[in-house]
Amino acid sequence: MKVRDPQRILDDKRDIQSLQFEGSYVSVGLHNVTRIVAYPEPGMHCYIPFYAVYVGDEIAERVPAWMVSATYKDVYDKEMAK
């Protein structure tokens, strides 16, 4: 099995399936969530990775990346196929 090179969150272009945090989660397909996208928010000295959770075409929630764990769709699909 080939181990993927680590990437910065903002450079990883894979589709995000879900975010998990503090005993809760959001997932594409649940509660009308249509997509989850990583994006940069300006910080004091640099950009800070955030996730935007979309319901339809509107952002319903913005979550700082340091607060959550992300599951990518390719990994999710592989686990569900087992």
Tell me the structural class: mainly beta
| Stretches with pLDDT under 50, minimum 5 residues | none
Q: Categorize the overall geometry.
A: globular
Query: Average pLDDT across residues?
Result: 90
- For the largest sheet, list the strands in their spatial order: 2-1-6
Largest sheet: 3 strands, antiparallel
Give the amount of beta strand, in percent.
Answer: over 45%
Distance between the termini: 16 Å
Whole-number total of structural domains: 1
Helix content: under 10%
Tally of DSSP β-strands: 6
The H-and-E topology, N to C, reads as EEEEEEH
- Return Rg in Å: 13 Å
- How many individual helices? 1
Word description of this protein:
With 82 residues, this protein is mainly beta. The protein has one domain (14-80). The protein is 10% helix and 49% strand. The protein has one helix and six strands; from the N terminus they run E-E-E-E-E-E-H. The protein has one helix at 73-80; strands at residues 16-21, 24-27, 33-42, 47-55, 58-64, 69-72. It has a three-stranded antiparallel beta sheet. The protein is globular and about 45 Å long. The two termini are 16 Å apart. The mean pLDDT is 90.
What's the structural blueprint in terms of helices and strands?
Layout: E1 16-21, E2 24-27, E3 33-42, E4 47-55, E5 58-64, E6 69-72, H1 73-80
Antiparallel strand pairs: 1-2, 1-6, 3-4, 4-5
